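Narrative of activities, Objective 1.

The group set out to show that a structural description can be obtained from nothing but a protein's sequence at a throughput compatible with the screening campaign. Below is one input-output pair from the validation batch, recorded exactly as produced.
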Amino acid sequence: MFVLIWSALFVSVKGNIADTGASAWAQQHCYDEGYCINLTGRELTAEAGLCVVIPCSFTTADGFTPKHIVWYKCEASQKFCSDADIIFHSNKNTDKKAQSGFEGRVSRLEPDVSQNNCSIIINDLKESDSGSYRLGVTGELNGRQDRFTFIPRVNVSVKVLNQKPRVMIPTLTEGQQATLTCTAPGLCSGSVPEITWTWRGAGGSESYITGNSVDFKTENLTDATQRHISTLTFNPSAEQHNTTVTCKIHFTGETTTEEASTLKVNYMKDVEVIGVTSVREGNVLNLTCSVESFPPAHIVWKKVPPNTNLQTENTDLHYDTGSATLVSPNVTAENSGQYICMAKHLDKTLTSYVNVTLTWHTKIQDGSVCVLQSEVLTCVCISEGFPLPNIKWLLLENHTQYTLITIVSNHTVNSTVSLTVKNHGNSTVGFLSNTGHVEERENLISVLDF
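Output recorded for this entry:
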């Protein structure tokens, strides 16, 4: 705030405001013989570690030639300030030195005293700098050394630093180089602050950033103002998403300030599908497609090729954000086939294909029968199932000569066996139909007195 005030004053002083009178923003105080001082504000507030500008201009009596300006800091109760109270003297050759605590921290904004500009800037402020400040002018009056001290005081109050650094974070995308910018608060030309960057992961300890490109620069805005900037260049990764980066500013003395920002990194991992893809008829098909990403990806399940009996509008079976679960109860043959999970993230789409197969119990079909003619026994077994059932005739265990014909159509197996039987007692002709998951036994007829 004070830099902006000073900027307005500095321009006006250059325009010789002392000759034009007080403006709406300046307070002019005049005394006998034409000694006048213009002060923008009598009460100034600043923060430790930064700076304060005391805007000031003056005029002197006719015959008085100003040579140097002197600023004092003394108690408000003191009627006069002494040489021990000097904080700045423009005459570097005088034995009247500034207080040691102010050496190198106070400078004037206009080195030419004939311009009647008495504005000063105090850098690297400390809370102990709070107090009252007065201006004095030394010079010659009609050829004789003289000096004049103005009565009005400027009260400066230095508070604890509350301003934070300004951290600029661009859009972060995994694998794409990015640069973070940290600008120190204040626009002072005092000591250069130390700027450091630190990381803090989820639940982790804070650590200084050393393996990335950190740069520092100072921008001169005016003769008396500067901007201090640090940049951090790195390649964001998914592991840095939701981590905290902190920019710390350390000013002269023990004054520090910092600003922490949470990083949001755009990233996308591989698509993952979990669930059983081989489902028995009548059971539930339950598949979940998910992808770890930021921002969350849009997940869509589709059937390939589309099955009109399964589709909803827009041909999507199910969709959600981040994770989508496809559930089909009481599955039938229509549920088998290929499914596709599509994960759309920003301008990128990933796909994963899943083949769903349906299994069901073996079913013995009508037409399975045995016929005995002239000692030739012919048995037919028709079994349906998925996967295709394997038919095993039990009666062949004791025979070596027989004829076996197997015909496969779709999900049906037709097995025909023929063999000669003589003097065969009572027995049962049976077979086993096995799909690999379920085995089913069937007895066709009882053979009596062959």
